[in-house]
Design a protein that fits this description.
The complex is a heterodimer.
Chain A lengths: L3 E6 L11 E7 L2 E8 L7 H4 L5 H9 L8 H14 L5 H29 L3 H21 L9 E2 L2 E2 L5 H27 L1 H7 L7 H7 L3 H5 L7 H4 L20 H25 L15 E10 L2 E10 L4 E7 L1 H5 L3 H4 L8 H7 L4 H5 L1
Antiparallel strand pairs in A: 1-2, 2-3, 4-5, 6-7, 7-8
Helix pairs in contact in A: 2-3, 4-5, 4-11, 4-14, 5-6, 6-11
Chain B lengths: L1 H12 L22 E3 L9 H5 L5 E5 L5 E6 L9 H5 L5 E3 L17 E6 L1 E2 L6 E2 L4 H7 L5 H7 L3 H11 L1
The chains are: A alpha+beta, B alpha+beta.
Bound molecules: iron/sulfur cluster (SF4) (2 copies).
One iron/sulfur cluster binds next to helix 3 of chain B.
């Protein structure tokens, strides 16, 4: 049967959401080997942040990407707070979790709706987006923007929730529980979705560990690496929750992890609202950032996000470096793709929830 | 497919979920971070907004003729992050919830807010100085007495001298 030839996919391609270039070697219709070339959206952010002061960088890091936009400033701020030795008030810890989990739920819903789009089930995609719209409205009403919340600041958070807003948040979260349950059942049981996701893009547990894969991509292969649990920050150690794990190792398992994490996120927000302590949301004044180095890690919707900040005691950082989850996850594509059909490339690519604009910064 | 049919039929019976904008009203939250607004009466010309603005959309400078402090804002450079409003000590600059940012090409590179404050004269030595702002006084003093008012009408130098006299 057929001979081997090479197919370019990307950097601008109808089935790819983001610019990355796959050199795919196919035999007939089956993928044999994948090469990944990247660097199309490099913006030089790591150099840019060195020319801005610590307060401006809270915003610039947020613009790294849009879907995990809350986690970038969050992690950066945690690293800066470590240098300055700031301890944030307890109310701020809970408010940080609330902002982060609302973002996580919206991000995961976006990813699974993209999955529906790529398998050609467009009505499922629009319906998922429609449900997600409720969360977008929540973000817009409470934080003022659909994507960039600007929730965190050095020493605490920039927003506070009054009784009215808490009631609104609870009401909106309750209103999407049933629709998401319905949609999750379709993702799980529908014949078309199953046919396109089950046994596709398999990543074994051994390979997951070998490649250091992070986030829901790893949790779909049964590897528990949730930073929120193993290296708790903010209020995560005070909440009652379990890591979501699936052992299907395929595209379907990753989607199921994300869908279950949406419920988990809603639950975490509800717990936070119930336990929300009184008090200030921010430390007084603005701390001087002394000379020093700090690192911080958080669990972004796509996996572990890592920030390194070095300060020389001036108003600007001396060096900043961040490592984003997709950087680790896209290596796994070289394992996931071979053996699958060429039509599955975009479905598999989507299953790692890629964020190229984070990775290339 | 049965699962989705249920949703489809329900959607068919429900009214549209989209807003008829621009022909009707649309949902605009109170807290939406829209176009920047500026109230010169509240501004103290402290330059904080320029310092925290990551986009360089604000410029606060001494006016060329030395009569006060100018405040310029470029809408097309602004990223609507809200940092300026958050750190402004008097809320002179803030995000309104207006989201209509479309402008003519000719307005692209010119400041959309070009305003500022004028200096006042010290009631004693007549030197130019930044004027006191009520909002900040209210925050600093429990009650704004005549004495406070008199103090704030003086330039820092005269205020110091007055204090020495009383010692
Ligand atoms: S607008 Fe606010 S922050 Fe900017 S100079 Fe005036 S008082 Fe200061
Ligand atoms: S909203 Fe942000 S970008 Fe716009 S002027 Fe204020 S600080 Fe600058």
């Amino acid at each position: 049967m057929g001979e081997t030839y090479k197919v370019p996919v990307g950097p601008i391609h109808i089935a790819l959401e983001e610019p990355v270039y796959f050199k795919v070697t196919v035999h007939g219709e089956t993928v044999e080997h994948v090469d990944i070339l990247s660097g199309f959206v490099h913006r030089g952010m790591e150099a840019l942040v060195l020319r801005r002061n610590f307060l401006q960088n809270m915003i610039i890091t947020e613009r790294t990407c849009s879907l995990c936009s809350n986690n970038h400033p969050f992690t950066y701020i945690m690293a800066v707070e470590k240098i300055a030795g700031v301890k944030i008030p307890p109310r701020a810890e809970y408010l940080r979790v609330i902002a982060d989990e609302v973002k996580r739920a919206a991000s995961h819903l976006f990813n699974v709706s993209m999955l529906a789009h790529l398998v050609g089930f467009h009505s499922l995609m629009t319906q998922t987006m429609e449900t997600r719209e409720v969360l977008q409205d929540v973000k817009e009403s409470i934080w003022g923007n659909r994507m960039d919340l600007g929730a965190n600041t050095i020493g605490g958070v920039k927003y506070d929730l009054d009784k009215e807003q808490i009631r609104y948040l609870i009401k909106q979260l309750n209103s999407i529980k049933k629709p998401i349950r319905e949609l999750a059942a379709i993702y799980r049981d529908n014949r078309i979705v199953r046919a396109r996701t089950e046994g596709v893009g398999v990543l074994s547990k051994e390979d997951t560990l070998r490649l250091g894969v992070v986030g829901p991509t790893a949790r779909g292969s049964g590897v528990n690496n949730d930073i929120r649990l193993i290296y708790p920050y903010a209020a995560y150690d005070k909440l009652d929750w379990d890591v979501v794990l699936e052992d299907g190792c395929d595209v379907r398992a990753r989607a199921l992890v994300r869908l279950r994490e949406v419920f988990q996120a809603i639950n975490l927000v509800e717990q936070c609202l119930k336990a929300l302590p009184d008090g200030p949301v921010k430390t007084k004044g603005f701390p001087r950032i002394p000379k020093g180095e700090g690192v911080a890690r958080t669990e972004a919707p796509r996996g572990e996000l890592f920030f390194y900040v070095k300060s020389d005691g001036s108003s600007k950082p001396e060096r900043m470096k961040w490592r984003v989850p997709t950087y680790l996850n896209w290596e796994a594509l070289k394992v996931m793709m071979p053996g699958n059909k060429i039509a599955d490339i975009s479905v598999i690519f989507n299953s790692i929830d890629p964020c190229i604009s984070c990775t290339e910064r | 497919m049965a699962g989705f049919f249920k949703i489809a039929i329900r959607n068919f019976l429900n009214s549209p979920t989209t807003d008829p904008y621009p022909f009707g009203e649309t949902f605009t939250p109170e807290n939406y971070r829209g176009i920047i607004d500026y109230t010169p009466e509240l501004c103290i010309g402290c330059n904080t907004c320029e310092y925290v603005c990551p986009s360089g959309a604000i410029r606060v400078r001494e006016k060329e003729d030395g009569s006060g402090i100018s405040f310029s804002f470029w809408l097309n450079t602004c990223s609507h992050c809200g940092n300026c409003g958050y750190y402004c000590p008097t809320d002179a600059v803030f995000n309104s919830n207006d989201f209509h940012t479309a402008r003519h090409q000719s307005e692209k590179f010119i400041p959309t807010i070009d305003d500022g404050i004028s200096y006042v004269q010290c009631s004693n030595c007549k030197q130019k100085m930044k004027r006191p702002v009520e909002a900040l006084l209210a925050r600093a003093y429990e009650e704004i007495t005549e004495e406070v008012r008199h103090q704030t009408s003086l330039c820092p130098e005269c205020r110091r001298m007055k204090r020495f006299e009383r010692m």
